């Protein structure tokens, strides 16, 4: 069976650079101008062959991306409930009762509460698989919601991050496990006050560069930090981060995940454009708009800005996928009607009532799905969010089955060398001291 070595990839830097330039030229036109100029299409005829690889004509695989929003009205509960349904569909359709979310995705990007979910579902556990099932991650988010953050009646501007409680929760959960212990490519953003810019914790960077491996418990604390900054250092102490939450820096990380894949030819050598992607983007509920109220509080403005940015990412990604978006891209988000029927979602969340939270998430998923149209807002489609998740589970399984017979690897993820520091035994001893 033919394989592609990393060394042969590095010998082809010039060809890869040309390919990357062409990909981004196409994306730029699609994202910004909606251009579908045939001369710019990345067809099989103008794919630049990379030394050591077969022609792009023989590649029809897809890189699978999971993106999870921060923010929203549900503090991760809607996304977590979406994942329980998706995992259930994957198990039923594949005939594998122990199938996990991490088995069917190559990349996960999560911001804020979405970053915590990404860490729970994609960090290596004691048996070598993920630490949490989707059901386990949902229960974690519900049970620890008040320990991680507390929402006051004033809304997001008065949301108080309680680092002592949060750090204990993350410490008990992850111990000394780091980004290198992630099963797949992981991207979790925060905003670094030291540099005044967004910073993404990345498994690829942790493996490639000294100074970029961070403990997973610190990554979760950083991406979920709200008003109060969180200080941390990399495992080797070289890099210092003063972080506030990923929801501020990058509420919807879908575009960042796509860019990561298209620009990372070492791990995704044959991904030539969005037609070679399968993307699931999970929202976390929209803020209660208070329809009919002409006065908007500062807290509401912050939420509107965050969700507006998420919507623009959704619209831009939808346009980039073009006609293939119906098969290659799905966005799961509430359409706002649940908030109007059940009252302010924040008040429901404040009760910390598990039944109410899960019931609201179920109702949001049973809604008709929302599709973004660039510069034209949103429209409802006939299928529900659950229908779209089930349909996409089938696409994920098709890709999994295709890889069993394909000669060329779709993904070449580097593996971290096991070390006593990141072993599960060490983690257990560390957890007991948290």
From TrEMBL:
Pfam families cross-referenced by the UniProt entry: Patatin
Please list the GO biological process terms of this entry.
Answer: lipid catabolic process
Keyword field = Hydrolase, Lipid degradation, Lipid metabolism
Q: Keyword check for Ubl conjugation, yes or no.
A: no
Q: Does the keyword Ribosomal protein apply?
A: no
- The organism's superkingdom is given as Eukaryota
Q: What molecular function terms (GO) are annotated for this protein?
A: hydrolase activity
InterPro entries recorded: Acyl_Trfase/lysoPLipase, PNPLA_dom
Coiled-coil segments:
none
PNPLA domain: residues covered: 67-258
| UniProt EC number | 3.1.1.-
Q: Any stretches that span the bilayer, and where are they?
A: none
Per the record, the similarity remark reads: Belongs to the patatin family.
- Entry comment, domain topic: The nitrogen atoms of the two glycine residues in the GGXR motif define the oxyanion hole, and stabilize the oxyanion that forms during the nucleophilic attack by the catalytic serine during substrate cleavage.
PANTHER family documented for this protein: OS03G0784100 PROTEIN (PTHR32241:SF12), PATATIN-LIKE PROTEIN 6 (PTHR32241)
Q: What does this protein do?
A: Lipolytic acyl hydrolase (LAH).
Instruction: Indicate what this protein is called per its UniProt record.
Output: Patatin
Q: Which organism is it from?
A: Ilex paraguariensis
């Amino acid at each position: 069976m033919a394989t592609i070595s990393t060394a042969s990839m590095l010998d082809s830097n010039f060809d890869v650079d040309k390919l990357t330039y062409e990909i981004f030229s196409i994306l730029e036109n699609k994202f910004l101008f909606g251009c579908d100029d045939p001369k710019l299409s990345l067809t099989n005829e103008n794919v630049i062959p990379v030394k050591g690889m077969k022609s792009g004509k023989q590649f029809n695989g897809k890189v699978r991306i999971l993106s999870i929003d921060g923010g929203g009205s549900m503090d991760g509960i809607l996304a977590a409930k979406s994942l329980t349904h998706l995992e259930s569909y994957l198990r039923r359709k594949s005939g594998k009762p122990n199938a996990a979310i991490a088995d069917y995705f190559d990349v996960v990007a999560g911001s804020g509460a979405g970053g915590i979910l990404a860490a729970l579902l994609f960090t290596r556990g004691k048996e070598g698989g993920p630490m949490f099932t989707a059901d386990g991650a949902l229960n974690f988010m519900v049970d620890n919601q008040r320990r991680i953050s507390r929402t006051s009646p004033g809304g997001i501007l008065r949301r108080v991050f309680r680092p002592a409680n949060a750090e204990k929760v993350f410490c008990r959960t992850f111990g000394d496990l780091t980004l290198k212990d992630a099963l797949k490519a992981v991207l979790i953003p925060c905003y670094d006050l030291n540099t005044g810019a967004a910073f993404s914790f990345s498994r690829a960077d942790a493996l490639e560069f000294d100074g970029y491996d961070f403990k997973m418990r610190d990554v979760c604390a950083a991406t979920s930090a709200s008003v109060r900054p969180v200080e941390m250092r990399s495992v080797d102490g070289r890099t210092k981060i003063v972080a506030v939450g990923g929801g501020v820096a990058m509420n919807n990380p879908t575009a960042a995940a796509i860019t990561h894949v298209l620009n990372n030819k070492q791990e995704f050598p044959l991904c030539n454009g969005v037609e070679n992607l399968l993307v699931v983007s999970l929202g976390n509920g929209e803020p209660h708009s208070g329809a009919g109220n002409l006065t908007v509080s500062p807290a509401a403005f912050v939420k509107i800005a965050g969700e507006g940015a998420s919507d623009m990412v959704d619209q831009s990604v939808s346009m980039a996928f073009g006609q293939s978006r119906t098969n290659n891209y799905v966005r799961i988000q509430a359409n706002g009607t649940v908030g109007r029927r059940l009252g302010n979602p924040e008040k429901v969340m404040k009760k910390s009532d598990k039944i109410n939270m899960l019931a609201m998430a179920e109702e949001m998923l049973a809604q008709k799905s929302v599709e973004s149209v660039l510069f034209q807002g949103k429209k409802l489609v006939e299928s529900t969010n659950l229908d779209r998740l089930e349909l996409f589970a089938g696409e994920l399984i098709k890709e999994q089955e295709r890889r069993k017979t394909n000669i060329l690897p779709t993904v070449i993820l580097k593996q971290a060398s096991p070390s006593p520091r990141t072993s599960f035994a060490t983690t257990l001893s560390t957890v007991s001291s948290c």
